[in-house]
Specification:
The chain is α+β, with helices and mostly antiparallel strands and about 350 residues long. It comes from Panagrolaimus davidi.
């Protein structure tokens, strides 16, 4: 489920329905709260494509300011996260036809105690009584372990590239157990940052060449959605044209972008991603040719430039990518929840 929450009505709307309503209600819709959770205001990077405002609170944390039809509302990242977790709980309770108390939540490998505490507060607000954490790469390894036979002593590099973060974890299979050797990550870099690159590119051209300010004409979210579509299109096509007429009915101009253009503007991000991988290898005291498997996780890992980077860095490794890389971590978390429940039941025999 996309981590979007709309507050245009009395009850928050979560997931795809919040995205679908953004064209009309973008200024009261929130996303990317994972980047703010448990952090001070001076620790976050403000994204120019955010349709909401983020301010510093009296205790130095983040405050999210939303514009509703009846005025402004201010929420903490924990409150927004609790809306998502409450929505998930209601759906799970309905499906299971009982009141659930415990949940497994996957978090980035380097999530700090402060961030985990903030997430725990959000979960308690949502009605969960007990939370079990699992690192996202380990959840991915759980999921892949059910569909691939991995020889003992194999070394796996889990490459988790989601919407908001890139997380790399190196694990070793030892007697059917997963042993974490090292991990590294960049928690200010994800697939959404590639959307932002495109957004800044087209926003600049619209302003300076066509005298169109998307903020003034309330087209900020429309441009962001177009950039997400362009990112996906450039995964299968060599070029794309943005229609200026969509922003000004009197302007019939077109703005072209090619795969080469996109790759060039993303070069700094790709260097940062490569450095995360190299740091994980260095911490593990391993060379690239000692990695047996590359496990690709997260929707952003579908991008051709990401696949090329991994193949170039690890030409001798076996590369694994699920048909649905977005779901791998949730599948692994569910398997871990099953394991914990089974383990608890065994105590009573």
């Amino acid at each position: 489920m996309p981590s979007y929450v709309a507050y245009d009505e009395r009850e928050p709307k979560c997931g795809q329905i919040a995205i679908d309503r953004m064209r009309r209600f973008e200024k009261c819709t929130v996303f990317d709260t994972k980047r703010m959770l448990g952090k001070n205001f001076d620790e976050i990077a403000i994204d120019p494509s955010w349709p909401f405002e983020v301010k510093e609170s009296d205790d130095k944390s983040c405050q999210i300011v939303l514009e509703k039809s009846d005025g402004l509302i201010t929420l903490s990242p924990e409150e927004v996260s609790s809306s998502i977790l409450k929505h998930i709980k209601e759906k799970a309770d309905e499906y299971q036809q009982k009141h659930l108390k415990e949940a497994v939540i996957a978090v980035p490998s380097a999530f700090t105690e402060k961030q985990k505490c903030a997430l725990l507060r959000a979960a308690k607000l949502a009605g969960w009584e007990r939370i079990h954490y699992i690192p996202e790469p380990i959840a991915a390894a759980f999921a892949y372990s059910t569909e691939m036979k991995t020889p003992d002593d194999s070394k796996l590099l889990i490459f988790d590239f989601g919407g908001g973060t890139v997380d790399v974890c190196i694990v070793q299979i030892a007697m059917d157990n997963l042993q974490v050797i090292s991990f590294d990550g960049n928690y200010y870099l994800g697939g959404r940052d590639f959307d932002t690159l495109l957004y800044n590119h087209f926003d600049g051209i619209l302003k300076h060449k066509h005298n169109i300010d998307v903020n003034v004409i309330n087209k900020k979210y429309f441009l962001l959605k177009e950039c997400q579509k362009i990112k996906h299109t450039l995964s299968v096509s060599d070029s794309y044209w943005l229609d200026v007429n969509d922003f000004n009915s009197e302007n019939n101009g077109l703005i072209n972008i090619t795969v080469h253009d996109f790759n060039s503007m993303a070069s700094d991000n790709m260097t940062k991603i490569a450095n995360v991988i190299l740091n994980a290898l260095k911490k593990a005291n391993l060379q690239r040719n000692e990695i047996d498997y590359i496990v690709q996780v997260g929707g952003a890992s579908r991008m051709p430039m990401i696949k090329k980077l991994l193949l170039d860095m690890f030409p001798a490794s076996i590369h694994k990518c699920s048909q649905y890389p977005d779901w791998v971590i949730s599948q692994g978390s569910a398997l871990y929840a099953y394991y914990l429940e089974h383990k608890e039941k065994q105590k009573h025999y």
